[in-house]
Specification:
Helices cover about 45% and strands about 15% of the residues. The protein has about 400 residues and is α/β, with parallel strands linked by helices. Strands 3-2-1-4-5-6-11 form a seven-stranded parallel sheet, with helices on both faces. Strands 7-10 form a two-stranded parallel sheet. It starts with 9 loop residues before the first helix and ends in an 18-residue tail after the last helix. The protein binds nicotinamide-adenine-dinucleotide and thymidine-5'-diphospho-beta-D-xylose (TDX).
Amino acid sequence: MGSSKKNKDIHFICLDELMRKKILVTGGSGFIGTNFIRHVLNVQPDWYLVNLDLLTYAGNPHNFHDITPEMKKRLRFVRGDVRDAALLAQLFSEANFDCVVHFAAESHVDRSILGPKAFLETNVHGTFTVLGESLAHWENKGRPEEFRFLHISTDEVYGSLGPQGYFTEETPYNPSSPYSASKAASDHFVKAYFHTYNLPAIITNCSNNYGPFQFPEKLIPLMILNIIERDRLPVYGDGKNIRDWLYVIDHCEAVLKVIERGTPGNTYNIGGNSERENIDIVHLLCDHIDKRLGRSGKETSRQLIQFVSDRPGHDRRYAIDSTKIQRELGWSPRFRFEEAIEITIDWYLENMDWVNSVRSGECRKWIEENYGDRGKKYSSIGIKRNNSM
Ligand code: NAD
Ligand code: TDX
């Protein structure tokens, strides 16, 4: 783990004190973290955010290039690892955070099957480290009753459903993949820190998200881009696995409700009430994009579908019962699937530069130049003034 240099920043401390809430966001350069930060900067003008992200393949440093100069003052980026306890301790000592929103994780099931170790390290060891430093901060904090640790987790910890039924907050954990096992383990640590040390922690277990800035390894962006580029569309197994899809902004709004009104020690399930078979999603994407690009006859995209070997241990169905967060916190999804999938398709069509940058080596090269050995001046904590990403 890289070490961090003590480097107080007068400007940062002054601004920090003016803000109503100061939040440490981990993994804020990934898909959901990016949407969350952009959303918060828009709707909470007196919140200050520190984004701690390692910039793995899934984190894109350019996701905030277009925010306003005023927003840039309310966002600080720190490249670093959630397993780096010294760095976390330094961040906590510099800003009296009111809340930690812990998104950072390895998040792709297929990658977890190919290489489970990174999932153990980031999702379990990383969460354990963030918990430990959050606890130390909370124990020394003035107004500790205002602190919250929010752990962003997944419905996959509950395992697989048959054709009937829903996951509730009481459903026993039964993870199937190395990814879901690592998320389940991290959830258990969070629960233990609440029960043992009273850390005011809350867990959210959310269903599959879709929307802008999602790395094109997950079903929806992968299919959108392969359709645009007329590449094959690999559907696992019989294509009848079911996921409960939620537009990412609805997820962000649920997280905001939990920060403001959630009860420590509780879990909240978040779902879109929008179950779809994978094959139906792929058909819908083919038809929408064909229409947008004026394709017909022999050019239509459904012909690109290829049924391929199933994912090992592939969960059949996920479906969330989100009654609790609806009833207790007044959240419900605002976006209909048919509407938000069009917004998502349009975003990818209009942001092929983003796609090309995350798929090409350019992005990695930029990160290496700015944060790697050659860019030591920007490494770790020292980049706090560089908010242009
Ligand atoms: P993502 O893979 O797009 O982003 C993960 C981010 O974490 C990246 O920016 C990456 O650079 C960063 N990161 C990885 N390892 C790190 C480390 N050691 N230290 C610091 N940063 C690190 O993931 P996502 O889809 O945005 O998911 C975010 C969170 O939400 C995850 O915890 C995931 O389990 C959970 N979740 C995701 C979904 C979904 O559908 N995508 C649904 C429910 C829950
Ligand atoms: O090429 C593909 N073909 C295919 O049929 C891909 C990438 C996926 N699939 C299937 C597998 C799943 O049944 O589509 C479904 C969705 O797959 P993913 O997008 O990989 O998501 P999933 O495995 O459901 O996990 C996701 O949802 C919950 C996220 O990756 C997790 O981070 C989140 O916790």
